Recover the amino acids of this structure.
């Protein structure tokens, strides 16, 4: 009798079960369907008004939702269905549809007729870099990506090429490879208004001779033509509004001075840039005496090659070497007065300007002169940028800038992480147009907002997390665990002023692709206007670091009340196709 060898293969399958509607959904259906098995459009309208907060919801709107839901769920037999009502399953699927039942508005709804200084503006830092700050490639592609994400302020560092006859964009005095300026400008022209009609501001960090400045001016006018906004006067007393500047491109930079080519000035500039690359500015250091530190405002990134100047200085050029056409294109003048912090934050009656501070500089200014910063930003533009030691293109926490009214809190858009998620969350407001109107209390010039003052609770947000779904569609079955379905838990919390910040956590739901938590959290809010709802889903791992399952940040001022479908995003801020949570929001 011979011997035989047998090979047996096992195919492992994870069972995906569809979760039942949460008890709240079942109860609402029973109540508004009046005990029946189908909900009519009129009954749905009553639910939308009472629970979802749609004041004045019409029958036609409810009928449209019913029709959309039937098409979505039964598209293959939609024409055969004669009923125009929703079953419990239809109703549940409607509530769990991120397209039909989103958590925030997707349209521009704020007043867009105030001056630019009244808005937070979605701002990029070193917008041309593909990776780290020291050795990555410079390219026009990150600029396109940023504009498609709603960025409205693009930063370009301008340097002469090796032959000194053309202009490149690169991070100066690093190993980054340059990209031609013309490529960047053409990309901006093509993609500036694909996601938003509101103005794009190009901040230029200028390290050019007068001849090359004149060449840049010619290139700007030739590329952008009528899109380029050219101011009527040299300095604005009040900035125009986003509505006035629709589909326009603005230039913001230092007004040019006579180009000084003597060795002492070049040596001084080299020293400034070395200092910039190490700590960005003087305030980044930790001097023993704050008073001594404030005697010098420090040299910010946007001012590294600047000799203190203002509009009046530029009307009196001693040699006439500066290119008048270049200066004429500057819509928002950058620069700082001579002197210390108090002088830098001085509000001038007859002109508006832009001031740039590093994240460290802002922290120290906020500590000692917080109300002065708020007052300055009511009329002028404040840009905040990452400190120079963030060579990996990481980002800083933006809330301190927004609390003090800083319009241009600049981010490394390629530096993914929680700080960038907060930025995405802030600019999901107002239809993701890149401009979010500052709260009235930040703009109140009679009673200047003091972020350090003790604040009382204005309102309370109650959040109920019912369930999640979609991971089995967007991830491989073995992505989270080789041997069993995932064990999901969710962290829910608030980012905002320090007194509002908190993170809470659900229990872990084991071995379930469609976890049901049904947990409620309460968040007292002192400054709800600046608060963001943070949501992160993780998969518990016994032996290693927990796996990432999705995240989102939502502006609490825009949250719709009621039961909502909340779509989740990956680490880069890209929306998953299917992953979403079912949640309820209630304000008291």
């Amino acid at each position: 009798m011979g011997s035989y060898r047998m090979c047996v293969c096992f195919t492992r399958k994870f069972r995906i079960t569809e979760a039942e509607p949460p008890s709240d959904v079942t109860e609402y259906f029973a109540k508004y369907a009046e005990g029946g098995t189908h909900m009519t459009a009129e009954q749905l309208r009553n639910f939308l008004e009472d629970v979802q907060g749609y004041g004045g919801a019409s029958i036609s709107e409810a009928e449209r939702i019913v029709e959309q839901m039937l098409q979505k769920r039964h598209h293959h037999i939609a024409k055969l269905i004669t009923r125009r009502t929703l079953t419990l399953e239809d109703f549940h699927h409607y509530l769990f549809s991120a397209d039909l039942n989103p958590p925030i508005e997707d349209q521009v709804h704020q007043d867009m007729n105030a001056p630019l200084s009244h808005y937070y503006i979605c701002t990029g830092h070193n917008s041309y870099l593909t990776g780290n700050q020291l050795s990555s490639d410079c390219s026009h592609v990150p600029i396109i990506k940023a504009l498609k994400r709603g960025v409205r302020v693009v930063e370009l560092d301008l340097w002469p090429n090796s032959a000194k006859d053309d202009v490149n964009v690169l991070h100066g005095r690093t190993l980054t490879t340059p990209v031609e300026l013309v490529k960047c400008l053409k990309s901006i022209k093509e993609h500036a208004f694909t996601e938003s009609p509101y103005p794009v501001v190009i901040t230029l960090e200028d390290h050019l001779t007068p001849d090359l400045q004149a060449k840049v001016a010619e290139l700007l006018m030739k590329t952008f033509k009528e899109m380029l906004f050219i101011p009527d006067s040299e300095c604005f007393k009040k900035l125009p509004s986003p509505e006035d500047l629709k589909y326009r491109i603005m230039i913001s930079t230092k007004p040019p001075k006579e180009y000084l080519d003597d060795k002492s000035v070049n040596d001084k500039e080299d020293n400034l840039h070395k200092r910039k690359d190490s700590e960005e500015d003087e305030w980044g250091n930790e001097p023993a005496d704050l008073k001594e530190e404030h005697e010098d405002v420090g040299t910010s990134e946007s001012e590294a090659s600047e000799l203190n100047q203002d509009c009046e200085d530029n009307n009196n050029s001693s040699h006439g070497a500066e290119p008048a056409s270049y200066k004429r294109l500057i819509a928002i003048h950058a620069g700082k007065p001579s002197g210390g912090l108090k002088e830098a934050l001085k509000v001038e009656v007859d002109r508006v300007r832009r001031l740039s501070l590093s994240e460290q500089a802002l922290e120290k200014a906020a500590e000692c002169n917080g109300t002065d910063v708020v007052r300055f930003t009511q009329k002028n533009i404040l840009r905040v940028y990452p400190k120079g030691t963030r060579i990996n293109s990481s980002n800083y926490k933006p809330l301190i800038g927004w609390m003090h009214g800083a319009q241009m809190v600049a981010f490394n858009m390629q530096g993914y992480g929680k700080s960038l998620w907060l930025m995405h969350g802030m600019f999901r407001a107002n239809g993701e147009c890149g401009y979010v109107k500052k709260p009235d209390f930040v703009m109140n010039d009679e009673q200047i907002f003091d972020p350090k003052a003790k604040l009382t609770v204005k309102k309370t947000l109650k959040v109920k997390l019912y369930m999640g779904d979609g991971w089995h569609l967007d991830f491989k079955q073995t992505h989270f665990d080789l041997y069993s379905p995932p064990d999901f838990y969710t962290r829910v919390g608030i980012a905002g002023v320090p007194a509002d910040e908190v993170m809470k956590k659900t229990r872990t739901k084991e071995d379930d692709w469609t976890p049901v938590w049904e947990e409620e959290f309460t968040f007292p809010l002192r400054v709800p206007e600046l608060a963001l709802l943070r949501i992160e889903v993780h998969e518990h791992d016994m032996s290693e670091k927990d796996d990432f399952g999705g995240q989102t940040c939502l502006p609490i001022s825009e949250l719709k009340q009621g039961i909502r479908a909340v779509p989740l995003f990956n680490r880069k801020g890209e929306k998953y196709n299917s992953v979403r949570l079912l949640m309820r929001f209630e304000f008291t």
